[in-house]
Amino acid sequence: MEIKNKPTDDATLFAAIKAGRHELLSELYVAHRAAFVSYAQRQLYATETDAADCFQDAVIAFYKNVKSGRMTELTCTMRTYLFGIGRRLVYRRNKLRMREVPTDPDEGIGLGNDPTTDHDLSLLNRFEDDHRKALLAKALPLLGKKCQQVLTLFYYHRYPIESVQESLGFSSPGAVRIKKMRCLDKLKKLLVPPV
Amino acid sequence: MSSEDQQERIDNYLLGLGSPEERLELAEEISQNSDLKTQLVDTQSAMDAVEFFEDDQLKQRLRAAEARFQSDRVTDGANAPEAKVRPLPPRRNSTSRWLAIAASVLLLLAAGWFIFEYNSPQSPAQLAQANFTPYENIAFDFVRGADDSIEADAFRAYERGNYARAADNLALLPASAQRSFYRGQALLAQGKFAEAEPIFLELSQSTFGLNRHSEYYRAVAQLGLGNVERAEAMLGAIDEQPDHPLRAEAENLLGKL
């Protein structure tokens, strides 16, 4: 049985995730989860559930920034970056819950040694309209499994066409393009709001 | 220009790919061509749908990782030996140096072992856990208000990722295929493959609506138990059924074996 090795340092892990090994995100989460939850409980007065939930969103924001090309290299440790995003999310959660927000020396966003900015969170904030959310959420599962995979690998994980071909066993890049086009057309039709 | 080529230009534009000149050229065309603009807006909507759905899938995976973390913590806590305070032995200067050297060697050996273990491939059980996401709760809804029944508590725990509690409560209820299915899911989420396997065996041979799903989960349980060849055979059988609901998952897992 041959299974891919786990990257052992930040740079290798970052490169692996950037190259498409999104399955490593769960390990990334578990590796830093306990430290973040402990920090958020002590410093930000978060509950364990809120802290863990915010840290999950921080990992998602990190991944989306990597795949969108916004984050092309690591300028700090992975932990520092994730903590920066996670902390902002906890602040936001606290504010929503109308809890008392503790005084923090780095509270001025982007100040101090926080490597993250509001920009790093923006990809998480795109779906705040509930009606649109409902329409979007229903559409993709209505397509066949293969269509879902093609569209997901190409548009979400940003695989090049050749990698989609290799991952899903298509005969040629052209076959992937045709399949993608057909699937996209189906999805577009499903997204037309009912008259 | 073929429709695929046109779509590729739009994709590149929306994904931020292509040269600045190409992007500028398309932006100008869009401003003058309403059909092209509609195509771009529709593609953006489709991309949003993919993104929204996949964000949710990723969140589910991380919630499952959280549940495993919680479960491991409970297990570790239960198995941890009670701490005992022992008096320090009197110092022996003549032997302390040799003891320090021996301790250093042991430390180096332990570090080497740790590095070797960390870099070695995943075990079948780790692979099974890493590739398992608990099935969404579609069996029980909480519309009934403050429902404090055991079943409500079980599914509430299930949705919150407290799989130990979910499995325990489901075991207390009168047997049904649906409850067995979710109990099996909760057991798999905790890495209790030996308990989960017979549940999915029975379900896969029944007329239960998720009997074909159960075939896949049984294969995951077999993998978790270390029966790699048996799991491979089961996943292979699923992969050969084009209409199997979890064929893609089976194919994906087979690719990692």
Automatic annotation (TrEMBL), chain A:
It comes from the Bacteria. The keyword Electron transport does not apply. Keywords: DNA-binding, Sigma factor, Transcription, Transcription regulation. The keyword ATP-binding does not apply. Belongs to the sigma-70 factor family. ECF subfamily. This is RNA polymerase sigma factor (Sigma-70 family). It comes from Neolewinella antarctica.
TrEMBL record, chain B:
Keywords: Membrane, Transmembrane, Transmembrane helix. It comes from the Bacteria. InterPro entries: TPR-like_helical_dom_sf. The keyword Transmembrane helix applies. The chain crosses the membrane at residues 98-116. Residues 70-91 are annotated as: Disordered. This is TolA-binding protein. It comes from Neolewinella antarctica.
